[in-house]
Amino acid sequence: MKKITRNSMIILALCLLTVLNTNLVCYSKDEEEKEPLIEAGKIDPKKLNTLQDRTYDEGITIKDIEISGNNLVKSDTILVKLSTKKGSKFDRELIQRDLKTIYDMGYFTERIKAVPQSSTTGIKLQIHVEENVPVTGFNILGNNVITTSEINNILKNQAGLPQNIAELNRSVEKIEELYAEKGYILSRIKKITDDPDGTINMQINEGIIDDIKITGNTKTKDFIIKRNMYTAPGMTYNENILKQDLTRIYTSQAFSDVRRVISASAKDPNKYSVSIEVDEKRTGSISLGGGVDTGSGLFGMVGYADNNFRGLGQQLSLNFLAGSAALLQDRDIIRRASLQIEANFVEPRFRNTLNSISSTAFARDYASYQIPLGIERRIGGEIEIARPIKKIPHLAGSVSAGFENVNIKEGNYDEIKNLYNTKGVDIKERAKQLSGGTFVSLGPSVVYDTRNNYINPTSGWYNTAGFKESFAISGDSSTFGKVTVSTRKYIPVGQKSTITLSGRLGSKVIGDMPEFAAFRLGGYNTIRGFYEGDVGTGTGFMMGSAELRTPIPFIDKVTKIGFFRDMRAAAFIDTGTIFNRSITDTLYNRPGYAISTGLGLRVVVPGMGPIRVDYGYPISYVGAGNKRGGRFTFGFGQDN
Known about the structure:
By secondary structure, the chain is of the alpha+beta class.
């Protein structure tokens, strides 16, 4: 009979553990040909039998752990994942969990096993693994809008290692997230296959648009809606681009609502059909009304407007206005009724190109707030051609050409003569103030617009720059040119409030600028808290404003009516200065610079847009002899 040694007894004891718990297999060197496999992927430590043997718990320690079968994955990378360490006691449940941990690394097949080998000092635990087929490279198919290099940058850490299904799945998620971040929300990894040489083939369905359908329109032609869209059949669907398309369609003012529906194409299940659903609104209207405006005073108006003329997306408007000019009477404005008539026509996509054409014709007769105690009569028109610059998103350029006859008459000679004498100014200078003439104008301009909403923006930029040369063809004035630049930044605050920061400047650049064309500060559109032009007029200016618009506190607790809940309270500060000041500033002791602050109300009137009511108070010098006090100003639009 073969002598049983102490080491043999230890082996037999370990084998006894195996009989009682078949999830862990132990064997001696004499029995290596029977090597059964442990399928780590099927291990459930909660279902293991428990066997406590104090002899083994107290006396059997693991003196060493050895990893075998690995070629590409370093042993240290595996060992660091194990809870079982050198010097710890032998614990079969802990080893079972370690085998599961190794399998979960993703680099190995289920042929993982643990082999304890006894010695006089303890157990040497040998863990045998079998690596997956190594990845030699990736073959990306079907990508067009995302480059292969961008995708490979996500996958690069897997090349040269055994194929790891878990890591590959995480990479698939990252690739689809990359597409989604750029707006390609329909893009998916369609299929993944392996080649015998270790190459992984990845087929991508980027989400191609098969067709675009328009529904809900009865008056508006389909092509009018589609021409507002950059999205087209054959393109990869991009949510960001389509949102911009929907915004352009909505801001044509022909629709009360615009939606999109995406579905699988009936012709090709690998492509998509996009439906644009619109709710048309009545676009033609005759208006009869009145109100108050800082420049016109109390006024009455009658007009006709159609924002979808003939169902072609064209805009046509005719307006006649008669104002009293008596409200908020300023001392340098003569009391006289004002009459204005204006016609506008806009073709947003001339001959189905990206060019838009707008034309204006006008005739105005009113008490001048540019020339003190003067009467202005202006007749003219202008045509502007604009086009987006495709290479620079949100940028558009335009060129305008116009004709205008400006006639300025004396309104109260006796009073103006007395004022000149009081200030010690030669009355001959009055002729310069009254100079007018006939002009032909020409000039380019650019607009950079990233606002999230054209009517009531809460975020984005609106920047403009323009130059206009006015060529004198008759009259007392000479040819002149001027440049204007403005910038406006909208910053959302919370969910419904907005801070607007703006800056503007302008300057004469060519010739002698007549006073009727001079820049002015003061009034609802510049420095609130002053009457029109009461800060000063000159051949150059610079100003800035900051405004906070926020919902009226607790209005949502009082009413559910959208008209009132859309109202906004405003708090603002304006500042500005005039350069190369005019004679009028001397006559009326205008300060030439100003700072004002105040409060206001923004009311969105359906069909008219936002109406502004502001109360401003000057906090800087108002000029010698000028009355200090707050001023109400009224105007249209969200911004001054």
